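User: Please run a holo structure prediction.
Assistant: Happy to. Please share the sequence and the ligand.
User: Here you go; the ligand is magnesium ion.
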Amino acid sequence: MLKDITFGQFLPGASSLHRLDPRAKILFLIAVIVFIFITGNYFALALVAAFIIALMFASKIPLKMYLKSMKMILFIVLFTGIINLFYGKGDPLVQIGFLKITEAGINNAIFVALRIALLIIASSMLTFTTSPTDLTDAIERLLKPLGVFHIKIHEIAMMMTIALRFVPTLLEETDKIMSAQKARGADLDSGNLIKRVKALIPVLIPLFVSAFKRAEDLATAMECRCYQGGSGRTRMKRLRFGKIDFYGLLISIAVLGGVILCNIFLPAVVR
Amino acid sequence: MNIIETEDLSFVYGQGTPFEKKANDRLNIQIKEGEFVGIIGHTGSGKSTLVQMLNGLIKPTSGVVRLCGKDIWEAPKEIRSIRFKVGLVFQYPEYQLFEETVEKDIAYGPGNMGLDEEEIRRRVLSAASFAGLRQELLNKSPFDLSGGEKRRAAIAGVIAMDPDVLILDEPTAGLDPAGRDVLLAQISQYHKKRKNTVLLVSHSMEDIARTADRILVMNKGRAAMLDDRKNVFSRGDELEKMGLRVPQITRIMSQLKKMGYNVPSGVLTVEQAANELHSLLGKGIFDE
Ligand SMILES: Nc1ncnc2c1ncn2[C@@H]1O[C@H](COP(=O)(O)OP(=O)(O)OP(=O)(O)O)[C@@H](O)[C@H]1O
Ligand SMILES: [Mg+2]
């Protein structure tokens, strides 16, 4: 079912990661991405991986959910890994026709695959532990300085909130419409490409009709409550940096230090 | 002979996630050919989940559904043919309409069965008349119909497949009282004429009392009762505990009986009650 897609889903909980300030979480995610990309040898990579695995446990999200979100990307991870395997410089260890595998190639493959995997896990962690509204709220705050360039940050954030809010609704609706058409004998998963696309029409038309209707209803409801954009709007839930965010910051700095030390004092791998 | 039979049928939503929810729990149900069975239960008791398993839209987490004695999931590739035999009209089926005209929309199911033009046309007309859809509506766009007409068009779309078992999930939800009465009468008539099996899901006891021969009571994912309607309604106290009520008129009549008047128990419809009271009036019992 469509609902089995876990990437980008929010899983409510009370772990320390759930309680972090969403702005801090976004910044930490950016920091972790930087860590992942500045690693120059296996020690540094292992350190970042250990950090992320520790966070996975701290998030109290079942391991299964992470695996599920990896499942969709697994193909890309393997594909880029294998391509990289053949793209190393140096003396070939194995030669198959014109394809040669070198030490650098193996290193490349491992690094690329692990980096993508860690990246996916870290970003799923953000969405698993942060509600969509908190997330867009945080993005709005972080992007606020761009307001100087007359970019309508609030409007963009509002559109993102609404879009995110309606993703599960639309998925649910798609599921429902698909079921209803299947009950009338629709054959949605066999035949060639053209046949499949054609079979989707009975699903897409009702979906668009209801999406437009929803959009109209929502617009009316917002207008009835005097929504007029960002200016002068106050907030019910104020974001505040707390103790826990401070600890997060300390740990991140420690990890960053560790990665840099590993990079400087231990030999870089052949790439 | 049992047309539908389930054995320890269970369904769990979101298995393995924090949202895990057991919607159906070890159901053992037998439904005979040609019966009209009402399915009733509180919101969230698992009625919709059950009926979706009966026509193979969702696969049981465990347990078996048998249609005419054969496990419907024996050959998963053939599941589409099961859906033609067990027609399911969803709760609020209006959203499934998509064609340019009502006629084409009703023809979608029969078209998927691979029937020829002439047969499809014949089925569309007969289904429309069973569902009480006026002829002149057939050439309109389904999006221009009223809510009640859309509902009828969607029901006709399933009837047109001429299923052996017709399942309707809350067909009267959101209709006005008059529209509800007409639709229920039409479904009863369809059952009488076609003589096939009908399952009607509803949480209105009145609706079920008026139409069904037997009643399946669902409670928290389990089958609490499956019995003739008189037997079910005589267990009013248990029903109340499940958040259900026997029809108002049944309660009034049993109250009268308790007060010592000579009325039969298990009166289910207002018409029946009126007749009983008339005959009492004739005997002059209420005169003093
Ligand atoms: N798609 C779904 N995902 C997760 N849980 C679901 C889903 N559909 C139903 N449920 C849950 O399963 C249980 C049974 O739902 P079901 O729809 O079968 O109830 P119902 O008896 O049809 O209720 P109603 O009278 O409100 O239609 C409910 O507790 C519901 O929350
Ligand atoms: Mg339901």
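Chain B touches chain A through 27 residues (CB under 8 Å).
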